Amino acid sequence: MSENTHMCRMEVGDIAFGMSLKEIAGWNQLPVDWERFQEYEPDGCFVVRCDGRPAGTVTTIAYEQLFGWVGMVLVHPDMRRRGLGTALLMGGIQYLERHGVAAVKLDATPMGKELYDTIGFVDEYRLARWQGHGCVGDVPAGPCELGSDDLETLAAFDRPIFGADRRRVLRRLLTEPGIRVAAEFDGDDLQGYAALRPGQNAVYFGPWIALDGATAERLWQWGRAMAGTAPMFVDVLDPCPYGKELVCQSGFEQQRELIRMYRGRNVSPGRPDLQCGILGPETG
Fold first, then answer.
1. Which residues does 253 contact at the CB level (< 8 Å), separation at least 6?
2. 5-101 with 129-277: one CATH topology?
3. How far apart are CA 101 and CA 261, in angstroms?
4. Structure pTM?
5. Measured on CA atoms in the order 60, 127, 180, 162, is the torsion positive or negative?
6. pLDDT above 90 covers what percent of the chain?
7. Does the domain made of 129-277 have the CATH classification 3.40.630.90?
8. pLDDT digit string (tens) for 162-221?
9. What is the pLDDT of residue 185?
10. pLDDT surpasses 90 at 108
11. I need a surface site. Which of 159, 185, 187, 273 has the fewest CB within 10 A?
12. pLDDT confidence of 3, banded at 50, 70, 90?
């Protein structure tokens, strides 16, 4: 970067700029999403400034020292082709590596993969965004909605499947107005859970985790019923045998393909075969 260009910590006042970039890109985030990024990793979210003006963003989140995520790499169209996107990406990577994570992860587009291949990232597996609508119908028997008192139970179930403790993320899902979380139990044993949260263009379904296909289906039906007729996004992992089949049966169409990639030592990959849908490409 040139002398008049520098990266600095993202502050609350930068959210409006982040939203303007997100609008240009056509992404789904709301202002509260940026607030969450800053809460999760206050020193790991950055804005690049050129001549004192904001030009781009990047966010990160570290999950223990096992792995971290880089997301929201956005550059204003007027400031592209100056290396700012690469500088933001490397700034996020370097922050996480200084934090001591074993691996840095991201969800790449096929075009972005061309860059990531050159800086030490390798493929883990593929996923895809699917788009459709909720449905008007009865809520299936089985899933029950969770609240803040269920955090410890949910975190203990989620950790070995996701691969790291993401308690602070789950706490927001369970307590934030407008987000709904449901789980299915067999007696006292949790069998799966899912979350539905608002977005700019569509409601977002995920995480969506299930130990078996029947649980996955009931959680999916719950999510569609809660969404009503609203547009709906879900990012489905290829290694999971349930998710893609269920979204296809519901008439959802694939919007884009992504490649989950990592740099470093993938010491805690979790159980992607049990993750039907993710929390989001920006946070894993």
1. 130, 131, 132
2. yes
3. 15
4. 0.95
5. negative
6. 91
7. yes
8. 999 999 999 999 999 999 999 999 999 999 999 999 999 999 999 999 999 999 999 999
9. 97
10. yes
11. 187
12. low
* Cβ 183 vs Cβ 170: under 8 Å: no
DSSP state of 283: T
What is the rounded CA–CA span in Å between residue 79 and residue 68?
Answer: 27
144 vs 35, 64, 121, CA distance in Å? 28, 29, 39
Tell me: the pLDDT tens digits for 252-269? Answer: 999 999 999 999 999 999
CA angle 194, 198, 199 (to 5 degrees): 120
H/E stretch holding 33 reads helix 31-40
- Reply yes or no on domain 5-101 having CATH 3.40.630.30: yes
H-helix segments, 41-188: 84-99, 110-116, 151-162, 167-175
Instruction: Output the pLDDT for position 4.
Output: 79
CA 272/CA 26 separation, integer angstroms: 28
CA distance 248 to 259: 20
Nearest to 27 by CA among 72, 59, 70, 57: 72
Per-domain boundaries in the chain: 5-101, 129-277
Question: At a CB cut-off of 8 Å and minimum separation 6, what does 129 contact?
Answer: 233, 234, 235, 236, 254, 255, 256, 258
**Is the peptide bond preceding residue 77 cis, with omega within 30 degrees of 0?**
no
